[in-house]
Write a structure and sequence with these properties.
Layout lengths: L4 H6 L8 H6 L8 E13 L6 H4 L12 E15 L5 E11 L2 E13 L4 E7 L5 E9 L5 E12 L2 E4 L7 E10 L5 E11 L3 E16 L24
Antiparallel strand pairs: 1-2, 1-11, 2-3, 3-4, 4-5, 5-6, 6-7, 7-8, 7-9, 9-10, 10-11
Length: 237
């Protein structure tokens, strides 16, 4: 079985993650199972009312959305696979159940090892038009932190590097939160901040997580269920 992409990116630091996080990030291509998380976002969406009408223009991309709410239920599926270019990848499909509207939020994180880049690249949206480099670290208490850097936008044959003055950075943290009864739950917090506009997206909440078998016993390293497949793949970095 191949190595999980987060272990490839973190190296020895992977073993310093909380045990529950190591399990969460243990999916690898060919594993034969996928992860399912069900929980509630304490807050999710764009916190700036004036910006939400502009985000309606990008709603079909399934990467950003104009809604904003509190106590919003959500579901996430994690699928480890090889992408069409042979790179080990993890695709996440999120369903966010706003009142009267369900929003989808897709991304594929791929581990790349080339002369130009060695590490994780995250491709966002149903067309994978936006790519960012992910820099990971592990805190002293075993939490995972990630910061997105150097975003690129792919428009047809064009590869547009977004300058720092207009680029937005995502700051993410994920950890395991023990409960008094001896159980626990996963927690996640993500903030996307643009230098000129401030916070353009936030989601923070908790969820329970389990592994499920693929139907029909599918376990090939390139297998990805149709609902999780993007409308377009992107190889450029």
């Amino acid at each position: 079985m191949s190595t999980p992409i987060y272990q490839l990116a973190l190296g020895d630091a992977f073993t310093r993650l909380q045990p529950q996080l190591q399990e969460y990030f243990s999916l690898a291509p060919g594993y034969g199972r996928f992860g399912v998380g069900v929980g509630t976002f304490d807050v999710v969406g764009c916190p700036q009312p004036w910006l939400r009408p502009l985000l309606r223009l990008t709603g079909s991309e399934q990467a950003f959305f104009p809604e904003y709410g509190e106590r919003i239920p959500f579901r996430i599926e994690n699928h480890a696979h090889l992408d069409p270019f042979g790179r080990p990848s993890l695709t996440a499909r999120r369903e966010i159940f706003f009142p009267g509207r369900t929003r989808l939020f897709h991304d594929t994180t791929s581990y790349v090892d080339s002369g130009a880049r060695r590490g994780l690249v995250d491709y966002l949206g149903r067309y994978r038009r936006l790519a960012t480099d992910l820099n990971l670290s592990v805190t002293e208490d075993g939490r995972l932190r990630g910061v997105s850097e150097a975003s690129r936008l792919f428009l047809g044959p064009l590869r547009l590097h977004l300058p720092g003055v207009v680029d937005a950075k995502a700051y993410a943290e994920q950890w395991w939160e023990p409960q008094e009864n001896g159980s626990g739950r996963h927690r996640i917090q993500v903030k996307v901040i643009q230098p000129q506009l401030g916070m353009v997206l936030v989601y923070a909440g908790h969820f329970d997580y389990r592994l499920e078998q693929y139907s029909g016993g599918r376990s090939g390293p390139g297998y990805l269920p149709d609902p999780a497949r993007p409308d377009r793949w992107e190889q450029r970095m």
